[in-house]
Amino acid sequence: MKGASAAIRARVMLAFAAAFVSAATLVFAAASLAGAAVERLVPMPWRAGAVAVSLLILALVDLRSLRARTYCLIGARRQARQSLIRTYSVAVVAAVWGFDTGLAVTTYRVSALTWAAFALALLGFAPWWTGVVYGLALAVPMLVLLFITTSAERLQRELGRRPLIQTASAIALAAAGTVLLVRP
Length: 184
Prior knowledge:
The chain is mostly helical. It has seven helices and no strands.
């Protein structure tokens, strides 16, 4: 969108963000609904153990991804089709891309934290509005970053923080999993 007017840039970024938050809310609400059924069927100690083991495994996934110098090794290795821009307006393509990315399991992820949130929802530990928080946690900083800069170099520097994010994710997941395993 280099050279685009501020109004057009804002409309495109807001279309992406709104679609991202909507899709994240939808997918996490579905996972939480499934988690409510699991909560009724599976005793708390088993669910807590399953979450703990899941978090520890996901910490290892982040460490493996970090070592491989790539994005999270779990999930689809794709993005929304780039050819959409030849058929639809930039705002529509941004909304499609935002919705696709907001579904959380359809495209690249930087770390395994998304999968941890799904594990929590599917095992009855995360409410439906987890998707709203997840969506806003990505959309708000992204909007701030894109409104204050359009520099490709700046965006590339931000993408270069993948190792830091994966390291923090691995530590947080390992710590949470360990606490759940050793708690009385």
